[in-house]
Amino acid sequence: MTELGIVAVGGYNEMGRNMTAIRVDDKIIIIDMGLRLDRVQIHEDVEIDKMHSLELIEMGAIPDDTIMKEIDGNVCAIVCTHGHLDHIGAISKLAHRYAAPIIGTPYTSALIQHQIDSERKFGVKNRIISVKAGGTYQVNDDVSIEMIRTQHSIIDAVFVAVHTPRGAILYACDFKLDRTPTLGEPPAFDRLRELGKEGVVAMIAESTNATRAGKTPSERIAHDMVRDVLLGTEESDVGMIITTFASHIARLNSIMQFATEMKRTPILLGRSMDRYVNTARELGYIELPKKTEIYGNRKDIDRAFKKIMEKGKDKYLPIVTGHQGEPGAILSRVANGDTAYKIESGDKVIFSANTIPTPMTQANRYALETKLKMKGARLYDNVHVSGHAYREDHWELIRLVNPENVIPAHGNIDMHSAYIEMAEDAGYELGHTLHLLRNGEELYIED
């Protein structure tokens, strides 16, 4: 009889530092190795390349994978669902401990390679294997890994199905069930339905937005919201600056299109903007408008701001990092008066992102907004839709896949509680077919 275990390494007590290990007899598949962003005073231009893994574990910034020493078996693969730092940010610190290849979709694999190339403390020699959504990686005769297309706030995101002799274990962190995405295809609903019929022994699902009623709005809604703010105004000649997640390629693609419609040059500023957008362009996921400019280097960014002020703010649309108020990010530098770009009365600052709900980020964001208002900026807040499933999306996925067991992940206890309540409504029983795991625990799936 095949023995199945699910090990909660990280991300089960909190948002971030996601890492789960799935044990099939003596074969172990690790899924995700992420950072906890708020533990390193962090933004998307984070630099942890010189820090030691033990220091980061002590800070609670990366998963404490010392539990893996107690798990019988050999790690055969490390699989990453998508390219956000809370899912790949610890690869450069932990992956070298395991004699296993790293598997991801093409865009995710390219971002992982960037992480490894910038690492200064450890030499990560693991082979990186790129598997497209819809593809499969064969571990051995009994175990295979299937990449199932989904949508999220980054391109090339997937569900991971680990196929075992007893059925599949489905890992669904992170996702939204977006049927009208602006970039890429909708989730592979037909394949998920088939998988449900074939038999899903357990599903591990994020619980980030399980507290929120209803269904997550499509990215098409955010596309229209951004268009309305940028183009739906009579004051078209004032300075405008917009900030969003550097990894949100679909959103950035929309913003660049609108800049062109406004007859403004889109100018992307920030090291992470440079990395995420140029990687997407090189792999053919997006085509940039002809006049687009991208600057990641500090001196180049300062020169670009100087040029904007000299030639006229009405000719450019700066797209910048810093929507969380992170110290050192571009928008914070603008608000502090540390760049040539000067906010004047009536200039528009558009936040195409939500505030991450942690005390530190909320405080940083409040300080940023206050400084911008003091300079006379008009603020447009939360011109955004989430990349995470709401409660009814979770209900829909459970009904679609019909797993024997469900386990909430990627969230704090409040998020897990909301997920558990929803799953109980769907007929699951806590402690029997519905399981609450904490970091460091292993769940044995009985036959």
Automatic annotation (TrEMBL):
Cofactor: Zn(2+)
Segments forming domain Metallo-beta-lactamase: 16-223
Annotated binding of Zn(2+) 2, by residue: 86-87, 174, 410
Main location (coarse class): cytoplasm
UniProt GO molecular function: 5'-3' RNA exonuclease activity; RNA binding; zinc ion binding
Cofactor: how and how many bound: Binds 2 Zn(2+) ions per subunit. It is not clear if Zn(2+) or Mg(2+) is physiologically important.
Functional summary from the UniProt entry: An RNase that has 5'-3' exonuclease activity. May be involved in RNA degradation.
Name by which UniProt lists this protein: Ribonuclease J
Chain's gene name: rnj
